[in-house]
Every structure is written in C-alpha cells, then in structure tokens.
Specification:
The structure holds three protein chains of three kinds. In chain A, about 60% of the residues lie in helices and about 5% in strands. Chain A has eight helices and two strands. Chain A is globular, with a radius of gyration of 17 Å. In chain A, a hairpin with an 8-residue loop joins strand 1 and strand 2. The longest helix of chain A has 25 residues. Chain A is mostly helical. Chain B is of the alpha/beta class. Chain B has nine helices and ten strands. The mean pLDDT of chain B is about 90. By secondary structure, chain C is mainly alpha-helical. Chain C has two domains: about 250 residues, no CATH class; about 150 residues. The chains are: A mainly alpha, B alpha/beta, C mainly alpha. At the A-C interface, strand 1, helix 3 and helix 7 of A face helix 2, helix 4 and helix 7 of C.
Chain lengths: ~200, ~250, ~425
Amino acid sequence: MKLWLRVRRSATCAATALGVAAALFLISNLYLPLPNLFGGAGLRVPVALLLPLAVAIVVAWGLTTGEPLLEAVASRPLLAMDALYAVSAAAFTLLVCALVQEMGRNGLALAAGRNALGYVGLALIGRWLLGSQAGALLPTGLTFIVSWVGYGAGRHPHWWAWQLHTTADLISWVVALWLLTTGAAVSLVRARYVDGES
Amino acid sequence: MSLSFERVSFRYRRASQAVFVDFFWKIPNGRTVLLGPNGAGKSTLLALGADMLRPDKGIVSYRTLQTTRRSDRAAYRRAVGWMPQQVRAVPGLTAREQVAYAGWLKGLSRSRSWLAAARALDRVGLSELAGRKTSSLSGGQLRRVGLAQALVHEAEVLLLDEPTAGLDPAQRARFREILAELPDELPVVVSTHQVDDLSELFDIVAVIENGTIRFEGEVSVFMDLAPQGVTERRAEAAYTSIIPRER
Amino acid sequence: MPLKSILRISSAVWVAPILIPIVLYYASSYPPATFEPYTLALSAAGEFTVAIAVPVCAACAAWEAGRLRRAGWYPLPHVRSPLAIALSALAPVVALGWLSITIAVLYRLLGAGLVAVPDLRILAVAFVLFVAHSLLGFAIGVRLPPVVSVPSVLVVIWCWMALPPALEPLWIRHLTGDLSACCDLSSDLAPRAVAGSVIVAAGLGVSAVLLVRQRLDLLRFALAVASVLVAFGLGTRVVYGMGPYPAVPRSPSALVCSSGVPRVCIWPEHRERLKQAERIIGEVIQRWRVHGIRAPREFSEQSPDQLPSGTGSFMITSESRPGDIVDTLAYGMLPPYPACALADTSYYTGQAARDNAYAWLAYTAGVSRDRIASEISPGALHTIEMVRAMPRDSQLAWLHRNLAHSLDCGAPPRLGSGG
C-alpha cells in the first residue's frame, strides 16, 4: 500500500492540494482579463478557479507512473483503488479549499474546491477517452475554451460553464460531482491494451 | 490441470487478421520452450495466459480458475507469474522496492512482499543492487528485475517472454542457471529465438506459427526432426524442418 | 522526415480545424483601436488572438516532444543537433500558429474593405512569439511526460499571455507581445513595446535552446534560468514607464497635405476626403473672419497634443458628415484642458466658460442650433443667442473672457476636520 501510494505520487498530490490552498490563501483577487465579445465590460476569469487544474494534472500523472504491464496483471483491485485514490485527492482538495474559505481569506476557495472535483473527474474521463498520457488535457483544454466562450452578456457565465460559477450555483456542484462520479466509474473499465510512460 | 487455452480467438483492434482462431493448447508440466517466427503469436499467447489480454472468444484457465470469470480473476493472476518482453523501471523505486511492489500487486502483504523481494532478487543474482534505483540499472539488470518480479509471489505457472533477449552471453548463462534452479514441478513457458542448449534447459518444445501450434513434443523428439546426417546445430535444423527458412 | 509524414502525424494538423475557427471568430469580434481603415490597427486587432494561439501551439510543441520522448529517440546519439530535431518537429506547429494569426489579420483587413499588406511588424512579433513559446513547450516536453507537460504548458503560458494586463504597473503588459491595443490614426506602434516583447520572447527561446540539450547539467540549467532573468531585466528596462497602450505619436511625415491656403493635412487613410476637408475648412475660416476670428493658416488631423504651434486641429473619419468636421474645427480652437481638469480629484471650474466659447465658435462656424443644444448644452445655446445680439467687438471680448476663464481652476477641496 505504501509503495503503491508512493508510485501514485500521493505525497506530490497532497503537496499540490496544499499548494493550491496556500495560493488561494495568498491571492484573493487575481483575475485573467479577457475581452467580452458579447458587449459590455471586459471579462475577468478568477485565477482561483483555475488553480485546482494542478491537482487534476498530478492525479493524472500519478496514474501513469507505475509499471503498466505489471499493474495490468495485478491480483489486487487496482482499477478500483486508482478510482478511490483520485476521488480522495479531489475530496482532500475540496476540504483544504473549504478551510481557506472558512478562514475568510478567499471567497472563491470553495468554488475552487468544487472545481477540483470536476477537474479530477474530467482527467479520469480524459484518460479513458484519449489515453493515459492525454488525460489531463481534457480538463485544461475544456477550461481554456470555456473561459473564452463561457460568459454571456453582462459578465454572467452560461449555465453549462460550471467551472466559472460561484458556489451559490447548484448546477455547477451537480455537474462537478457528476463528472467525478463518471470519471471514477469509467476508471473501473479495464483498458483493452495498456500503454503508459512514467 | 495446467494452464490451458480452449477455443481461444483473439484479434488486436485495427488489425485485419486475427492472431488466434479457435486456438487450443494445454501448457504441459515441466519446462517448455515456445519457438516461432516473429509475429507468430508467442507474446500474445503469453499475454493471454497472464490475463494481460483477454480473449474475444474462448476460455483461458488454470485449474478451475478462468480469466473470463470475474470472481476467479484475482486467484488466477496470483497463480500465474509473467515476465513481459519489455521491463520498465518505475521512477523513484529501488530494485527491491519495485520487486516488492510487484509482490504487493500480486496480493502479498507488505511485510511478506518485502521479504519475498529480497529472496527473488537473490535468486536472480541482484542482491547487491537491491538498493539501486531501477532507472539507473543496465538493460540486462532490468531484465533480471523483471524475472524477480515474476518470481516474487511464488507463482504456480511461470510465463517468460523472451527473457534472454538483449542479454550478453554471461547474463544468458546466469539466466540458464536461474531457470535450472527453479523447482522441477513448476510449469514454465519460455518464449525465445535462442535454440542453443535446448536439451539442457527444457523438457518440451512447442513451435507456433500463424496462431497454431505446429509442433509439440519432448526435446529429443524435436531434435530427431533434424535431417539425417546433420550433427551440428541440430536444433536449428529441426526448427527449419517445421518452419522453412524462406517463410 | 518527409513533409508528408510530418503533416500526417503532427498534432498541429489535428489542432488546426479547432484553433483556426476560434481564432477567426475572436479576431472578427475583437474591436480594433479605431474603426478607420488603418492597416496597423486592424493588424493589431487580428494579433489579439496570440493569447489563444500561442499557448495552444506551445502545448502542441510539448506533445511533439513527448512523442519523441516516448519513442526513446531523443537521447540517442543523433548526427543532427537537438535544436535541429526540435525545429523539424516544431515547424508545423509554428506554421499553424503564425498562419492562424496571419489569416486572422487578413480577415480583419478584408472585412474592413482593405486590400493591403498586413503590418509586417505585427506579424514579425507574432512569429517570434510562436517560435519562442513553441521551443519552450518542446523543452519542457522532453523533460516531463506529456501527461504533465502538455496541460501545464497550456495553462502556464495562457496565464502568462493573459494575466499581465490585469497587473500594475501598466508597462508589464508590454512584455508579452500582445499589441492589440495599438493604435488610432494619430499613433504608431511603439518600438519599445515591440523591442520589450521580442527581448523577453528571445530570452525564453534561448533558455529553451539550452534546455533541449540531451544532457542537461547544472551549468546549462543555470544559464537557462539566467537567460530568462536577463531577458526580463532588459525587457523591463525597455518598456519601463510606458502607459497602457503600445503606441507612440505617428510621424507627421505620413500626412498628406493640400497645397492651397489654408493648408490642410490629413492621414493617408483619409486621402480621398482631402478636397472636401479643404473646402469645408476654407468656408469656416471665411465665416470666422467675418466675426473677427483669426484662424490658423494650416489645419492638421494630427492629435492636438502633437500639433506644431500655429496649426489648427480638426478630426475626420470615413463616416464624418460635413457638420461633424465643422464641429471638430470649433472644438480645435479651444485651448487644452488645464491640469486640474485632468486630475482625479477634479476642482475644475472653467467648464461653463469652455462650453460657452465652444458653442459660440461652433455657431459662428455654421453648426446648427439643434446640434449645439444636444452636443454642448441647451444652456450654452441660450447664452450665445443672447451674446449674438451684442455688437461684434463685445462678442469677441466675451469670447476671449470665456476662453480665459475656461482655464480656471478653483481652490482644491479642503479635506479633514480643520476645514
């Protein structure tokens, strides 16, 4: 178990989650300014909502760092363990983000935690769809595109741009949780062939 | 009951031709060498036997355990040890840690896998390098780590895919010693292109071509296939009598 | 590798059908600094999409490096240098990025009805950005597995391209190569902004070239870090103190001037309206002369703060009607606002006098009453209607009094309990 956690880079993952929390603690008001092509004032994408992408990247990386052939013939339920590991990493990030929010240091910390759930879920779906090396490309690529097209008139994010909403938006929580659940579920499906690179 | 393939069909996705169609083979007890030309299906067969690949049709089983039955899978995998053609280093782990990790993956407890890793490394002659990072080992040393990974959980069947490929003569000799030290009752299948010293190392020869076992028999019977009058490189001559050179 | 093979396997080919439409959509929607058919402004507006295309191309470069890394080819003892290998893998990626920007710029120009060569400085900066960031993506891609390098490069370079405009001091934004805020007709691309962004990009590129070496030692790594730091230092030195726009006043040598009196100079983009402007200005001067106003003998479309002394200013656009030109002539006769009017804590008291003078000048130049009421103020119209009943000299004295008062600054507000 200890070796497996080491192979999965669990310490790096925990450090990344704590780093995200520390960054949220320090930068409460940093935005990416983007032009609003639908008129009105320019858009401001909070950097806080992008930070949890780091956790999704480290989780996706950790899932590639083992010996894929060896793991493919393991007697232990490694697929389920990997899914549980990814969900735990997302939940841990949510927890530390919630603590930052509770401290009153960053009003978007909880939303960042919610995004960690969705981003990790997307990374797992990305692994399943695109292969283990391209897993984290799905959350980052989608967020990149959504930040450009996800806002409607009046600086309000569209309902489907779940990662740009504040915590008050219930749909964003439902979508993030659904992505994580779907990601965990597809992780249980064994790949027909194994690829991988550490 | 040994490891067996019953009416197994398998085709790689995007491949136009199936590797196996209604393939049947029961791995004999003792040490078997699996010979065949490139692309004959040797590695695929061993990967199917290791439950690395799953057949499109048919059954791969060991005793009463079948890879297609979810409830049997863990026990089946515990029973089979497999050394793939390509052994990779897990970044950050030492040789002993990597072998212990392999043992843990096969269901051994943490403490047992740690002890078993030391034993397995000792068997393959790598005790001195147990503390070295696998990423810093040479190709030959890494292959021995791969063999230790296959041995660590005391498998009941051993499938070794080209274990001596890329090894120098000294390392190949060391491998032969390791193989000779394995218990006689342990079924071992070794796929290889090397046909030297067959009689010293193996009991059975199987020759596979185009997804079909073309020959299976004792080493002496295999050697007798060599044309009369041939005294040197008889194994090679026997092999080419089954798989002609121009193929 | 044959070009056909490179095109078949390169990630750039797969990304192109997604990237180019997005870039075109954004390029067509982003408002340029001026709606006049100014090649520079339209090229700069098209270049706005580097903030999208550069991170995507850098991520593609990381993927290409990951492909070589996975194949185990990169560390082999090749005859060609690592840089040559990198550039051959990156050629389609850089081509995609630069092509997408060029297409976006051409689309902007053609959309504005302008068949012209894009501003080459803009395209050159874009090219440098694509080469430097793609090399950087490649250098990261050969060191880290694609699962880490590709998304990290995408996000980090995106933040680097997009974040500086949100930061203070304002000159930081000129280090990224985003020139989209350039330029209205009176301004030209600031060489300092070009130099600053090229220096930083070159520093990143040099650092990447050092990092793509097969064997990375501490010295090379230190040199790579140093080249980035030096580039940022030099770039900062170049752009330090600049405002929000990457613009400098346009050279007056570009003006197209009439030969008659008054001499009228306009920017070449308005060349076809020179005769009309000359006629309107002549008529207005004539009207003012009747009222005792001595107008300058030369009028120019240059920005008022760049005008040589004794030259009057006016504004003209492709859409201007004659009344608009007359209005801007009257406005151009007003003195510049005093410093107190431009300060944040305004205590400017001369606005009413300024409105009065502006309204009188506009009225006598021929601007309609309705326009004065709507554009300046109904009160100013009412005032000048009374003034117009006065003798000519009294009107002139009233005008000069108002022009003088338009520079009045009142006492600054006294804050605090002592007040």
